Amino acid sequence: MSAWHELVERDHDLQNPTSADKIRLVGAYLRLGADTTVLDVACGKAGPALILAREFRCRIHGVDVSATFIEEAQRRITEADLEDLVSVEIGDAAEASFEPASYDVALCLGAAFVWGHIGDAAAALNPVVGGGGAVAVGEPFWRRSGRDERGFVDLPTTVARFESAGVDLTGLIAASEDDWDRYESLHWRAAIETGDNAVMETHLGWRDSYLSSQRAELGWAIFTGRVR
């Protein structure tokens, strides 16, 4: 996790282009309940974990590489009085080793790139839940055909990558333009309010890319699936 993201995501409750209602939909697709144990990889400030624990009373353990985000997550968990359901720790998803079949559900809503693409992330999470377990991965995709230098591909190919890891797709929860605009706008405000000249230069580059092409062409969704 870079200092850039810690800076520009300082005001985000959800650190992806989604909403609380859509996170609850993820929980419904995953059939979360009071007996469900969930691993949340790259949990950030525990935004989704708090929503899911409050709604479904499931037990969630989050891991994130950013000490800044974990500190904020711990504060938010305490304020929400959810210490009995949500716990977090500092850890690097790319290097973490989890006991096989130790959770019912595994999430990675914003950091599939740690392993590569969505299929690589699903393959890494599958052993954590075992056969019959469930996974959810967030991933960008192009609304048009083709791919770019970051490896993003169109929606059918993204789904094919996901299912190639031994997962059957059970749900698709896509970001709207409003979700994207809210997510990006909080970046812009944080950069302007806290940034120096170097921060502003980076901010303007990302903003102009979003306005000129990504807003119209780049999608993002959470893909839920059942491990075969």
Key descriptive features of the protein:
single chain; about 230 residues; alpha/beta; Rossmann fold; seven-stranded mixed sheet; 8 helices; globular
Could you explain the architecture of this structure?
With 228 residues, the chain is of the alpha/beta class. It has one domain: Vaccinia Virus protein VP39 (Rossmann fold, 3-Layer(aba) Sandwich). 43% of the residues lie in helices and 21% in strands. It contains eight helices and seven strands, in the order ααβαβαββαβαβααβ. A seven-stranded mixed sheet has the order 3-2-1-4-5-7-6, sandwiched between helices. α2 crosses α3 and α7 (177-194) packs antiparallel against α8 (197-217). It starts with a helix and ends with a strand. The mean pLDDT is 93.
Helical/strand content category: alpha/beta
Percent strand: 15-25%
Widest β-sheet, arrangement of strands: 3-2-1-4-5-7-6
CATH fold assignment: Rossmann fold
- Fourth-level CATH superfamily: Vaccinia Virus protein VP39
- At the first level of CATH, the class is Alpha Beta
User: Would you report the number of β strands?
Assistant: 7
Q: Give me the Rg, rounded.
A: 17 Å
* Poorly predicted runs of 5 or more residues: none
Distance between the termini: 32 Å
The domain count comes to 1
State the shape: globular
Q: State the helical fraction.
A: 40-55%
What is the string of helix and strand elements? HHEHEHEEHEHEHHE
> How would a crystallographer describe the biggest sheet?
7 strands, mixed
The CATH level-2 architecture is identified as 3-Layer(aba) Sandwich
The overall pLDDT, averaged over residues, is 93
Task: Give the count of helical stretches.
Answer: 8
